Structures are given as structure tokens and as C-alpha cells.
Amino acid sequence: MNVRDALRRRVSANRYDTVATVAAGTIEELIAAAMEAPSAYNIQHARFLVVREPEARAALQRIAHGQQKVRDAAATVVVLGDRRAAERLPLIAERAQRAGLFDATAAAAFAANGQAAYAGRPELARDEAIRSASMAAMALMLAATELGLATGPMIGFDPLALAREFRLDERYLPVMMITLGPAAPGNWPRKPRLAAHEVLVADARPGQDHAFSPAA
Amino acid sequence: MNVRDALRRRVSANRYDTVATVAAGTIEELIAAAMEAPSAYNIQHARFLVVREPEARAALQRIAHGQQKVRDAAATVVVLGDRRAAERLPLIAERAQRAGLFDATAAAAFAANGQAAYAGRPELARDEAIRSASMAAMALMLAATELGLATGPMIGFDPLALAREFRLDERYLPVMMITLGPAAPGNWPRKPRLAAHEVLVADARPGQDHAFSPAA
């Protein structure tokens, strides 16, 4: 399946096969695909809790305002963004050095520059965590589509209840949940999209007004 | 090219063919691919300014702290997130109705429910704009990879200068820039990623501690 096919075939699924399971190896493959997404300084802010066990799914369903798909799907991936991910830059630089991309001096400079960019800027670090985790989520959903698995991204849940019940350190911002598994019949067809010309200024220039059509 | 191949082949490119161009039709195709990304209530928060003309590229380079790749790449896509995108839900619901997904009553309820979810919650609307635009950006980069074009996501730019010089309404939050075009030789190889087991809890349960390894 090529990229554009996967983009067109993915729908946000609400109905799942309630007796299906997703193997641990498949989960690992999808998480590895998600981690291929880019992040500033290769910080890799995304982290993942995967909820598969029935009692845990029931707890997550309550956190998600009772939404049935969380109970029904073989798994739900809780996508987190690490607000303090830049702290890991020395490790990330060391691995790039081991892979032959940096010498020791360059690795140290890379880690120091990346950490300096976030020092005293918690809002930037929070926005970055959302950006990186969202790009990783998109990568995960497309890889799942290619494996024949349905997905459903969700923001309708209580992040405080999630953090409390799943004992999340406050550094991990819940960015979204993604239900995951073989689909059941009865999902919505794909919803129509705005056309490219409605959301695009194809030759933007400074000093000109840039409006999108339809405006509202 | 399948999805996982595209994920593994994409690198954040800094070096671009300085005389190449990207056709308007290709830009439209990539924006259409980006719009296939999901968004809550299908709100479709992402908007795009594409900067191709040499003088405009020079202006954008200054906004991006002088980064050469913005001058060199055939195009740079400024990915925006509309903080007030929920205002367009009646239009989006009407199009879903025309596509046969809703009757008139369901379309009205869909638009009203979506708008109610964001009423008086500007922080939620802002976070959503970042999430949706980031997922759209990932889709765009993978579609570009499939077309043989290099991309480089960037957050190193001055968003206030961008808004001022490109006369952006404050509703449009700059989420990232993506340099785009045929690559020149000399780009970095792919940077190594954390392994799935380092970023994943594969069977998360309430009441248990969830730590990632290495922790920092």
C-alpha cells in the first residue's frame, strides 16, 4: 500500500471486532514506525502506553467518558508527549555518535545546543511535545492502515483522570488516544475534506494579505 | 513506496537543489494528501502558505534566523493551525450532508456539538490546532517522500515576524515550516531512533507505575 493510498483509506473507526487481539510484536512494529517521525533535535518526545487487558480497557473507557470503542478495540494506544524530553539529549547524541554521525565534540555541542533551546521555555517544550507526539501518531495510524488495522484518534478523555489512574508522571502530557484493532462492520465512510485551493496560498509573499477561502 | 518504507527513507534535509522548482500541481497534490489527516470533528484546522518566489524565500529566510535551507529549497510550506477552525463546522457538516453521511438534523447536531466542545476553551482550540496541523504535516512529508521530494520540518523561526511580514490573521497559529524540494548531495544520514521497548509500556494497567527506560 503506498502512502497516498493509506492516507485515503484510513478512516477514524468507531466499531471494532470485540474478540480480536493485537500481538505484542505488531504493537512493537507500530511503535517503531511511530518513532520514525521527526522531532526537533531528534529529541523524540513521544511515549506510548498500550492498553490491551480487558480490565484496563474498562478503566480507560471510564476515563474516555464511557466511549464504547475504547472497550471494544483490541488495544488503545495512549500517546504521550514528554515535556522534559530534552533532558535525554546527551543519550540521543551519544547514540548518534555511536552510529558515526558525530564525533565526541560535535555530540556534546549538539546536546548542549538542543538543551539551551528549551532552557526556561516550558511552553515551547510543551508545544513541541504535542507536535512530535502528533506526528508520531500520524505515522502510527498510517502504518496500522498498511497492516490492515483500523484506528481511531481521540481527544475525548479526562487527562487528569488518566494521569491519576495510570500514575503518569507530570512530565508526560497526554496528547491523544488511538483505538486500534481489526474493525467490525458499520464504520462511517470517510468524511469529505476541504479542497486544496480552500486551505492553500500557493505563492505567498511578504506584505500581501493571505486569506483562505471560504473564510468561515 | 509503502508507508513503512517512506517512514524509514524520510530524512530531515538541509541541502536542496537551488535551481529546482516544484510545480503548482505537485503542491496541490501534497496539500490534498496533508488534508487527509484526521482532526477532531473533522474540523480540519490546517492551513498552508507556500513560499516559492525568490524574493519571498529571502524574506522567509530572515524570519527563519537566516537558515540557508529556506533560501535554497524550491519551496517552503508554512503550516498554520486555525485556532477558530470550529467556526467552519456548519460548512463542514453541510458538505458531509451533501456526501450522504448526514441528514439535515444530524448535520446541524454535529456542527452544534463540535462548536459546543470548544466554546470558551481557547487553550483546547489552540492545542487542537497544533495537533491537527502536525498530523497534516506528517502526511505531507510522507507523500512528498513518495514523490521523491526531500523535506525538512523546522520550528526555528520567529512566529511574530512571520505573522507581521506575511500579514497573518491572529487566528492562524504558525505550527511549523517544511522546506520542500529536490535534495542536493550532502544531507545527513538518518539519525538513530530510540527502540520501541524504550518508549512503550505494552500492557499498561491502572494503579501500576509506568516508567520508560532509559528514564533520562
Keywords:
homodimer, 216 residues, alpha+beta, NADH Oxidase, four-stranded antiparallel sheet, 9 helices, 5 strands, globular
**In CATH's first tier, which class of chain A applies?**
Alpha Beta
- Our count of helices of chain A gives 9
Shape of chain A: globular
Distance between the termini of chain A: 35 Å
Which runs of chain A of at least 5 residues are low in confidence (pLDDT < 50)? Answer: none
Q: Your description of this structure?
A:
- Two copies of one chain form a homodimer.
- Chain A is an alpha+beta fold and 216 residues long.
- Chain A has a single domain (3-191), classed as NADH Oxidase (3-Layer(aba) Sandwich).
- Chain A has helices at residues 3-9, 24-35, 54-63, 68-72, 89-98, 104-118, 122-146, 159-165, 196-199; strands at residues 46-51, 75-82, 150-154, 172-181, 200-201.
- A four-stranded antiparallel sheet of chain A has the order 1-2-4-3, sandwiched between helices.
- In chain A, helix 5 runs antiparallel to helix 6.
- The radius of gyration of chain A is 20 Å and the shape is globular.
- At the A-B interface, helix 1, helix 2, strand 1, helix 3 and helix 5 of A face helix 1, helix 2, strand 1, helix 3 and helix 5 of B.
- Strand 1 (46-51) of chain A pairs parallel with strand 5 (200-201) of chain B.
